[in-house]
Amino acid sequence: MTSITIPTSLRDVLEALAGGARPIAGGTDLVVSSRQGKAPLPEALVAIDQVAELSEVKTGTDGLMIGAMVTHARLMTEELLVESYTAVADAAALVGSPSTRNVGTIGGNVMNGSPAMDTGAPLVVLGAEVELRSTSGSRRVSLADLWTGPGRTSAAPDELCVAVHLPLRPVRSGSAYVRLEYRRAMEIAVVGAAASVSLAEDGTIAAVAVALTAVAPTILAVPDLDALVGLDPTVAAQRVAPAASATATPISDLRASDTYRRHTIGVMATRAVEAAARRASGETIAVPVNRALGIGAAR
Amino acid sequence: MTTLEDQASAPPRFVRADGPAKVTGSGRYVADLSLTGMLFAKFRYSGVAHARIRKIDVTAAKAIPGVFAVLTAGDVPDVRYSPVIPDRTLFAKDVVRFEGEILAAVAANSPAVAQAAVDAIVFEYDELPIVADLEAAMADDSPLVHEDWASYAVTGDTPRDRNVATFSSLSKGDVDAGMAEAHTIVKSRYVADGSHAAPIEPRGVLAQWEGDKVTIWTSSQVPFDARNGVCETLQLPSNRVRIIVPHLGGGFGGKCGFHFEAHIAALARATKRPVKLVFSREEEFLVPDRRRESMIIDLTTGLRADGSIVARRGWIAVENGAYTADAAFFAQLAAMHVAGPYKIDNVHIDSHLVYTNHQPSGSVRAPTAPQGCWACESHTDELAAAIGMDPVEFRKKNGIHTGATGVVGQVYDEIGLQQCIDAAVEQIDHAAALGEDEAIGLAVGWWPSFPGPSGAYVRLDSDGAGQIVTGAQECGTGAVMTLRQLAADQLGMDPEDFEIIYQDTAVAPYDTGATGSQTLLNNGRAVVDAAEQIAEQLRQHAADHMEAAVADIVLADGHAHVAGSPSKNVSIAELAEIAGGGELLIGKGSGKPPDYPEIPGMNCVGDQGVAAWAAPQFSCHAVKVRLDRDTGVVRVLDVACAHDSGTIINPIAAYGQVEGGVLMGIGQALTEGTHYGEDGKQRNGGLLEYKLQTFADAPRITTKFIQIPTADAGPRGAKGLAEAPNVPTAAAISNAIAKLVGRPVRQLPMTAERVWNALQEETP
Question: Which of A100, A185, B150, B292 is deepest in the core (most CB within 10 A)?
């Protein structure tokens, strides 16, 4: 039998966690995997949706704070995100269906730690940190330090993800997330790539980051992209493909073979860099890029 | 007379009677029903593809508190069932032949207790070699799926051999001589994966005994078949088994046939309680003996220098799966689609229905046709390319037309295939100009109508309100809903004046059910017949009332009037009131089904009765697709459809059928296919990894009907329509992809990865 408490204060939530309860936000992972028989529901649950501060989106001097309870539906429409952290909005807009997006949250998504999660790669390229809190204190960790394997994180059982923090964006910057998908709703990324690009005044690459979805046990940043700095974005976009394919360690499963994944992750990385660079140059590409630019963001 | 009707200008007729209940949620499905004292059923499945049973021990399961019964093979009559080839029993005996085979059925006071009992059943077995590959299954040294196949009491002329459950050939003329005459010969192989009907409602069954009679609520497309299955397996007369179907959440053929009604009735009898079964989504994928068959198709066609087809040879293997559900005729039906709606003098096709240790195949919407048409029509584009002819011109030249002789020697009366080709081409040309990496592909298809026995009653009560009591089953097509229109038109009344009582075998006369696109064709005839009897009564009453001749009475707009003097009238309600005091207004209809045509010159072995086609339906779909060359992802942008289904009686329902068929066809073309593991078990038996199309994927769909009032068909010359739109979509998409890739993708579904692999092939 599962018991559930529904506090309205964060303090009560943290105390429940300290007492052994597990948190539930939208329930899109927890409830579904229980129904599928993958993992039984925990004996004690603490709902976090009545804690108002967890649903805030706030700008500060050091960037943007997104509360853990912010839903995908909000991520894809919130002006602060669509303007400056567009890749997150691209990814949120591709998740599941309207009903999944209305209940699924960024905190739940991040802490579920799936290598196929859509919002993960965008958060990595944007340099996100997760704020973890427990009755004994608060700490911030990078996503690279948070995710330790598929479905595994370095958070202690009594720690709650209360917010995701995104640093301020440089001038002339843009970001994008694209994914390979076989249909346009209720889909899970076959592979996906996010890119963040900032441009120098002459339009060449000043900085670039790329992260990959569904090609390794966790979401991965493509290392050693410094060689792309100073290049024309279209050239950089082409050069990122082999780097992405080399970073990937994909598996073969029902959705795709490892060979096909290794090829298409390069294609997605190229398209993500192209779209991010176009946004960095001031062009508006509607969210999500996958829909605005056609099949798998082809054009 | 042929008329083209534009979708934009077609008048909608009326809102279907079951629409509001389904949309608002007030409609009740089997899963929504509860009876006092009701128990919950669960099945224990084999979970292994092929094994000899050593022991099934239910002792521990029976001992669990709350468990009321656990039944196995020994608890029901020892009956082998299935039409044509009775190779199946309700519960596994001796050998299990696929993963979803039922070993035992449990009834308990909650689903959780029932599941605990299922888990407590001990199953010991020795694994047997798995038969999975169609060609390997046909080899002389293959293990047998049914060791004792020769002992089954098969009906009719059904050639069989080892794992070949049925064999059928189409043969006409002299193929060797034809090939010798050919200027160009093209040889192709196509391989289609199995797929699923995937209705949104997982099936449910609820059974309750009262004395020696049982009532069974079930999600069936064919209640009379379900009843007959219960009668056969539990050895009961038909008047002691009543089947009621509440609202049905789709079927697409997957809910044809007799499934689990007898298991639940047996549990209800053993426990003396009502018992309900509701499937999970996973069970809906793995267990029913209805899924779309996988196929291998080899085709060789010879062309004369002028582009006419001189000869065609074919070889087909159709997957039967572990048991022969209703697939006995699939071999010949597949051969008809592989032969195609063409004028070919010399044809020989050998077709085999092959046992494997996979889920049994069965009538999913136009069985064998989407795959057969996909192979035939992809091959047709290869033929046209081989001689440098435009694929449209090639089809116009070789396609059958009114008065032509087809592949089996049938001479076709007035048919609209040629007009379908013109109409599809015209519609797709109206779509925007082709962009980069876009192409148009086109395919033609055909499908038979199935005349058969069917019955209905119509009555008008004394207030003038009408009832149609019909044996027909509504599976979502709207065909039963359209019966109101037929009755109303016959009586000069409004469709809204009629309610429909349907889906109850104890109340209504026989009908085959929602199968073979036959509802309007056959039950329409019955309803018109029954309504006409009432019309005669009304005209007599009106003639008496107005002192006019019966022959002069016209029924229109809710009134009877004298021909030529509309003002001299009496309302039908008033006549009904008069009749209500005397001889009641009750009509019963059935009528003689139309005859099947002759097929002179055919020499087929193992005729399964599906070569001579009554009132054949024709179609042409043209599609525009866009290819992402870097990933192989294909998106369908436009589908232009043209259908000859005879007279269209209810346009709004007809357009819906075409659009639904197209979406299902796109799924089969691009994303829907069953993956099997080495263990013979499905790897994607669920909606996460079995990729149905969503509404977000829907292309623009336009439809034109070539309306030819067809002789020897249904009311007003209507033919069937529900399956036809599912036939040519995948084939048309294949031909568009082939144009962009430079070669056909020879596997179905043509997934992004398969398309990408085809793009990597070197041009020979």
Answer: B292
Cross-strand partners of B189: B298
User: Which SS3 state, helix, strand or coil, does residue A139 take?
Assistant: strand
Q: Residues A89, A90, A95, CA angle at the centre, nearest 5°?
A: 90
Distance (Å, whole) CA B751 – CA B745: 9
Short-list B622, B667, B646, CA closest to B365: B667
Contact B562, B556 (CB under 8 A): no
For residues A179 and B670, give the distance between their C-alpha atoms in angstroms, rounded to a whole number: 18
User: Would you mind telling me the total number of residues written for chain B in this entry?
Assistant: 764
Q: Taking CB atoms and an 8 Å limit, are B628 and A254 in contact across chains?
A: no
Distance CA B94, CA B96 (A): 7
Q: Which residues lie across from B592 on neighbouring strands?
A: none
Four-residue CA torsion sign, B141, B147, B153, B154: negative
> How close, in Å, is residue B629 to chain A by CA atoms?
9
User: Which among B601, B599, B605, B600 is positioned nearest to B169, based on CA atoms?
Assistant: B605
Chain B positions in Cβ-Cβ contact with residue A33 (cut-off 8 Å): none
Map out the domains of chain B with their CATH numbers: 33-128+203-278 (3.90.1170.50), 456-589 (3.30.365.10)
In order, the DSSP letters of B203-243 are -EEEEEEETTEEEEEE--S-HHHHHHHHHHHHT--GGGEEE
Interatomic CA distance for residues B165 and B353, integer angstroms: 5
For residues B340, B343, B349 and B352, what is the CA-based torsion angle, rounded to 10 degrees? 30
Side-chain half-sphere CA neighbours of B144 within 13 A: 11
Assign domain A50-299 to a CATH class.
alpha beta
Q: Please report, in tens digits, the pLDDT of each residue of chain A (299 residues total).
A: 789 999 999 999 999 999 999 999 988 888 888 887 888 889 999 999 999 999 999 999 999 999 999 999 999 999 999 999 999 999 999 999 999 999 999 999 999 999 999 999 999 999 999 999 999 999 999 999 999 999 999 999 999 999 999 999 999 999 999 999 999 999 999 999 999 999 999 999 999 999 999 999 999 999 999 999 999 999 999 999 999 999 999 999 999 999 999 999 999 999 999 999 999 999 999 999 998 887 554 44
Q: What CA–CA distance (Å, rounded) separates B193 from B667?
A: 12
- Interface probe for A, chosen from B630, B663, B672, B757 (most Cβ of A below 10 Å), is B630
Can you read off the two tokens belonging to residue B575?
Answer: 């006549």
Choose among B340, B346, B343: nearest CA to B316: B340
Q: Packing angle between helix B369-386 and helix B729-741, nearest 10 degrees?
A: 40
b/e sequence A40-75, b meaning 16+ C-beta within 10 Å: ebbeebbbbbebeebbebeeeeebbbbbbbbbbbbb
Question: Tokens standing for B167?
Answer: 């064999």
Contacts of A20 (CB under 8 A, 6+ apart): A44, A157
Determine the distance in angstroms separating the CA of A152 from the nearest CA of chain B, rounded to an integer: 22
The nearest alpha carbon in chain A to B755 belongs to: A260
- Those residues with Cβ within 8 angstroms of residue B563's Cβ, 6 or more apart along the chain or in another chain: B552, B553, B554
Sequence ranges of the domains in chain A: 50-299
**How far is the alpha carbon of B41 from chain A, nearest alpha carbon, in Å?**
19
Q: Are strands A173-180 and B585-589 parallel, antiparallel or unpaired?
A: unpaired
Select the residue of A186, A188, A260 nearest B756 (Cβ to Cβ): A260
Q: How many CA atoms does the CB half-sphere of B460 hold within 13 Å?
A: 36
Q: How many angstroms separate the CA atoms of A206 and A203, rounded? A: 8
Q: Residues of B at the A interface (Cβ-Cβ below 8 Å)? A: 436-437, 626, 628, 630-631, 633-635, 670-671, 675, 683-684, 687-689, 691-697, 751-753, 756
User: For residue B571, what are the CA distances in angstroms to B513, B580, B581?
Assistant: 35, 14, 16
Residue A291 touches partner B, C-beta closer than 8 Å = no
